[in-house]
Amino acid sequence: MAHESDALEHERASWKPSPGLAVAVADPVRNPELPPHRERMTDKDPAAMKRAVRTVYTLFYLSIAGSIWAIAAYMLFPIESGEILAIRDNNLFIGLGIALALLAIGIGAIHWSKAVMTDKEHAEPRHATRGRDSTREAAVEAFAAANEESGFGRRTVIRNSLIGALVASVAPAVVLFRGLAPFNTPEDPIAGDPVALLEETMWEPGMRLAHDPTGKPIRAADVTLGSAVHVIPEALAELSHEEGYLDQKAKAIVLLMRLLPEQLIEPDDRKDWSYDGIVAYSKVCTHVGCPVALYEQQTHHLLCPCHQSQFDVTDQAKVIFGPAARPLPQLPIMVDDEGYLVARSDFTEPVGPSFWERH
């Protein structure tokens, strides 16, 4: 092995390239520089430039029309009736208007940049920048050059139509907020008062608790320990969609759970609100109204899946985590002569989110 190693070392030291063998030398990469500038049709033909400008501001005006149509569709296809066809038409035509408004702005901006703005390439040397007056002056010059190249300040029709399209595109979103605060009417004097609307639900003394959505009444003996049952008023199943089924259900939905009676922490004025460890709480989260439907049997916590608010079922559904500001309203319950669970009364406070002013 030693003789072989010595031979290899001697061979390497004595090797020299033959006279006819070319040896590659690493040269630095040459700067390929910018390719030759290719003029566009709009650069060569003034008529083509005028057509491109007209196309751009026409698209921006089309965007304005789409925004106006979205606002008009909100008024022409109201959803207050609650009918499925009305809701479908409202969503369809408002969506088409907003889509047209945003799409036309996007296409117009792209066509403007490709056909109208200056597209000549230039190299900008890099150097150390400092916060000096000369640096600020250079920044101002850069903005002025960008304005000149884009034609934003010079092409007033494009500029004004773009500004109008951007302003109009926000208008449908502003108008849609109208649906969050209905106005009072002579036929419905509390339509604009969310507290009054949520103070009363379908629950009334003696109304049976029923399974959601079948409407089958619930016997206390059938509620097992650790279970969570989705509940609606028995009378709700008899309502049709035209009679306000969804509106009433949104306020009256309840989650029913059974614990060991000794696990409940109940003040004296609420000891008769439960029955043999069975408690009922509103399913509407007091944060923004999402359905609280996740029940942890081991911890006895209710979880809202939207923003992770947690409520302690053993202690009057008090908030123990998350953004909810108050406990879930409790529905007082008892058992009738046939063993069915019934409501003692309606909720004693408004259900739902707590960001409204409450009496």
Automatic annotation (TrEMBL):
Keyword Acetylation on entry: no
One Pfam family here: Rieske
Transmembrane regions listed in the UniProt entry: 59-77, 92-112, 162-181
Cofactor (UniProt): [2Fe-2S] cluster
PANTHER family: CYTOCHROME B-C1 COMPLEX SUBUNIT RIESKE, MITOCHONDRIAL
Keywords from the named record: 2Fe-2S, Cell membrane, Disulfide bond, Electron transport, Iron, Iron-sulfur, Membrane, Metal-binding, Oxidoreductase, Respiratory chain, Transmembrane, Transmembrane helix, Transport
Major localisation: membrane
Recorded topology in the membrane: Multi-pass membrane protein
Organism per entry: Microbacterium awajiense
InterPro entries named in the record: QcrA_N, Rieske_2Fe-2S, Rieske_2Fe-2S_sf, Rieske_Fe-S_prot, Rieske_Fe-S_prot_C
UniProt keyword Glycoprotein present: no
Top-level taxon in the UniProt lineage: Bacteria
Subcellular location, record wording: Cell membrane
Ranges for domain Rieske: 251-342
Full protein name: Cytochrome bc1 complex Rieske iron-sulfur subunit
Similarity remark: Belongs to the Rieske iron-sulfur protein family.
General function of this protein: Iron-sulfur subunit of the cytochrome bc1 complex, an essential component of the respiratory electron transport chain required for ATP synthesis. The bc1 complex catalyzes the oxidation of menaquinol and the reduction of cytochrome c in the respiratory chain. The bc1 complex operates through a Q-cycle mechanism that couples electron transfer to generation of the proton gradient that drives ATP synthesis.
